[in-house]
Amino acid sequence: MSHIAIVDDHRDIRNLVGKCLHQHGYRIVAVDPAAARTALGRDDIGERGAGARRT
Question: How many domains does the chain have?
Answer without folding.
Answer: 1
